[in-house]
């Protein structure tokens, strides 16, 4: 049997991963985005052919210098909202083990990385990061924008 596509599709969605990583004290890593004026989790878009766990550990390393293995990245849920009329799918990924200390690797995007207690998070939060945080720590954040949440079995 042969399979074929209809031709090059026109892009119509954004996909990426938001990475919830904690230190030994249980604090979550957030970066201050100068560009957006918000706090955000490490993360970003998938490369072509890349799975969400692979994107999560790659983005974690690129943005913070923390090194993790894909097998230490647990995909918890897929979250779908929209931005400027474009569907956005964010994988909520929890990284359980890593090596290194966070440092700014993309100063044009992130001014600094800081560890924060999940019960006392700074504001404002980037919307996809807030949805990922709400997936990992349900109920901590209130008045979130709408999102379609698809929890993954075994997560």
From TrEMBL:
PROSITE patterns: NUDIX, NUDIX_BOX
Keywords of this entry: Hydrolase
Record-given protein name: NUDIX hydrolase
GO MF terms held by the record: hydrolase activity
Family stated for the protein in its record: Belongs to the Nudix hydrolase family.
InterPro entries: Nudix_hydrolase, NUDIX_hydrolase-like_dom_sf, NUDIX_hydrolase_CS, NUDIX_hydrolase_dom
Cross-referenced Gene3D superfamilies: Nucleoside Triphosphate Pyrophosphohydrolase
Species for this entry: Streptomyces bauhiniae
Lineage: Bacteria, Bacillati, Actinomycetota, Actinomycetes, Kitasatosporales
Residue intervals of the Nudix hydrolase domain: 10-140
UniProt key word Thylakoid: no
Highest taxon above the source species: Bacteria
Cofactor (UniProt): Mg(2+)
SUPFAM superfamilies: Nudix (SSF55811)
């Amino acid at each position: 049997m042969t399979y074929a596509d209809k031709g090059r599709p026109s892009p119509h969605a954004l996909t990426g991963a938001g990475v919830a990583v904690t230190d030994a004290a249980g604090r979550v890593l957030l970066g201050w985005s100068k560009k957006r004026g918000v706090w955000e989790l490490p993360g970003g878009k998938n490369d072509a052919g890349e799975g969400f766990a692979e994107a999560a550990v790659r983005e974690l390393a690129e943005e913070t210098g923390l090194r993790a293995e894909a097998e230490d990245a647990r995909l918890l849920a897929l979250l779908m909202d929209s931005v400027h009329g474009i569907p956005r799918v964010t994988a909520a990924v929890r990284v359980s083990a890593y090596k290194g200390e966070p440092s700014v690797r993309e100063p044009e995007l992130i001014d600094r990385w800081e560890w924060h207690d999940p019960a006392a998070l700074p504001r404002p939060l980037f919307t996809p990061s807030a949805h990922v945080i709400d997936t990992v720590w349900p109920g901590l954040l209130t008045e979130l924008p709408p999102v379609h949440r698809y929890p993954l079995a075994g997560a």
